[in-house]
Amino acid sequence: MPSVADVIVARLREAGVAALFGVPGGGSNLDVIEAARRIGLPFVLTATETAGAIAAIAQAEISGRPGGCLTTIGPGVASVVNGVACARLDRAALIVLTDSYPAAGGDVFVHQRVDHHALLAPVTKWSGTITSENVDATMGKAIACAMAPPPGPVQIECAPDVAAQTAAITPAAAAIAPEPACAGPRLQFAGSWETARAEIARARKPLVVAGVGVRRPAHAAAIRSLCERRALPAMVTYKAKGVVPDIDAHFAGVFTNAAIDQTILAEADLLIGIGLDPVELLPRPWRSVAPVVYCGPWRVDTRHVPFVTQLVGDVAACVEEINEVLGESHWNLDAVCRTVAAQRAAAFAPSSMLSAHHVVQLAAKAFPNSRVTVDAGAHMLPATMLWHVSSPNGMLISNGLSTMGFALPAAIGAALLQRGPGPTEGDDHNDENPPVVALTGDGGLLMCLGELLTVVREQLPVITVVFNDRSLSLIDVKQRQRQYAPAGVALGDVAWSSIAEGFSMRAHVAATESDFERALAAVLAHRGPSLIDARIDPSTYPETLRAIRG
To answer: How many other CB atoms are found less than 10 A from the CB of residue 173?
Structure first.
């Protein structure tokens, strides 16, 4: 008969979980890890619990199935909160397995005891406690809830004296449905569809804006088809990069509710927000006067963006509803393309030194087929504008939470999923096995530095590019904008190459464009993980921030 731990991991694997990440403790974690080993579900040790959650998020975003991580009691659960919040606001299905005190122990011991459910409640969709009687039902409910639109994190707690018990399996357990609060909506209209139909039919310059809710291949196909049939331009949010490729004739730029967006928005007489969730947008007043129609897999908040109506359900069906009403487009797509090109050129000032946008352009050219992960920080602006992406989730970035320390753990999750089962030590970087490129600021890397060792230990094809400007540059720019003296933003000089080499990782230092090109060539020729310490001139950041965000 299977144990409780056996049922837990079996249900995770059936749901499509590709690996478990985290930092184990000495309780039920050990039973789960052993049960996972027996069925070939990998457990990957990370340096921090938050990194484990982010690696699992990356796998969930790419695969469309849940990601999985585990933590020990007390400090382990406290440490994973940032990663769980990232999953909640970035709309990623995440199963968080937490240990607990022995079920038979009562409340006698208070050492390390915190209320895990209460601690995680603000950032989870649901949480439950596993027993030998409810394990199958609880796992089914947790997975269904995590996957129900909008996807997000759930927490399951299992005590050490429960994990090894024999599970009581009932025939009906697999049919357990999620509670109504977790259930996804059917195709429905929120708001006046007749009013929306009139606005859609009247529009001559409708603009598509694709967001976090439409990152599956079928979603991208429906959106691209709509744009082609109706000759419509489309903008994408950070997380929707690749839904419409950057090089596509219909691509109209990246949308964040920033100043740079307004030129094309001002021409539009209707916005069609497909999967556009305001959780991604800059917290600024909505400036467009054009009516906004939403369609996507879940309902979204209407306090920020004044949606006329929401079509909620199957994305292809929602898109077709809109397509049937649309009239003739008056857009000049060539003019839109020229506007986007001019905006890119104006956002990045020429520099005789190694700038962030030079690094992005050179790395993107060197790794045209690679998935890229992007950390929060000043380098994020050139990365999201200049790195061309051709398919959904080709760029992974935290945009709902926008947390630092995201890029490297996300690259770990992505590289493991790309590798599949079995070791690949010594594999070449080629078109069939391209490395994952992690673009991170020095401040962000300091927050997850131990994950360089995770990359080496797992022998993952991850190229870490550190934008080394010795400062929290985005915050420094914002301080100067307010005419404040820089304070609390200087990081100091870090010998990143020495640190990487201390982890047995190949490392390179680049202070000029030619240095960086040589480093890229060496990385391409090397088998295994590498780091490039790019010594960045931050003087172009203020102009870039002003051009993009205003």
So the answer is: 20
- The closest alpha carbon to 378, from 258, 543, 211, belongs to 543
| Contact (Cβ atoms closer than 8 angstroms) between residue 70 and residue 83 | no
Residue 39 has φ and ψ, to the nearest 5°, of: -105, 5
- On average, the pLDDT of the chain sits at 92
How far is it, in rounded angstroms, from Cα 276 to Cα 126? 24
**8 Å CB contact between 142 and 154:** yes
Domains and their CATH numbers in the chain: 4-175 (3.40.50.970), 188-338 (3.40.50.1220), 348-549 (3.40.50.970)
From CA 253, how far away is CA 545, in angstroms rounded? Answer: 16
Distance between CA 394 and CA 371 in Å, rounded? 5
HSE, side-chain direction, 13 A CA sphere, residue 69: 37
In this structure, the number of other CB atoms found within 10 A of the CB of residue 475 comes to 16
For the beta sheet containing 94-99, the strands, ordered from the edge strand earlier in sequence to the opposite edge, are 43-45, 20-23, 67-71, 94-99, 153-158, 126-129
Of 383, 427, 545, 394, the residue nearest 476 (C-alpha): 545
Residue the block writes with tokens 């915050």:
475
pTM of the predicted model, to two decimals?
Answer: 0.94
Helix axes 407-419, 451-458, angle to 10 degrees: 10
Pairing of strands 126-129, 43-45: unpaired
Contact 452, 498 (CB under 8 A): no
How far from the centroid of its chain's Cα atoms is residue 338's Cα?
29
Residue whose tokens read 């929120």: 190
Please choose, from the candidates 500, 501, 512, 508, the residue with its C-alpha nearest in 3D space to the C-alpha of residue 536: 512
Residue 109 predicted with pLDDT over 80: no
**Rounded Cα distance, 317 and 313, in Å:** 8
Phi, psi of 541 (to 5 degrees): -60, -45
The pair of structure tokens assigned to 288 is 């467009």
Nearest to 96 by CA among 72, 131, 64: 72
Q: What's the pLDDT at 429? A: 54
Burial call 369-400: b when 16+ CB within 10 Å, e when fewer: ebbbbbbbbbbbbbbbbbbbbeebbbbbbbbb
Contact 340, 245 (CB under 8 A): no
CA angle, corner 492, sides to 487 and 498, nearest 5? 160
More confident residue, 112 or 262: 262
State the burial class of residue 231 (Cβ atoms within 10 Å of its Cβ: 0-12, 13-18, 19+): middle
Cβ 413 vs Cβ 348: under 8 Å: no
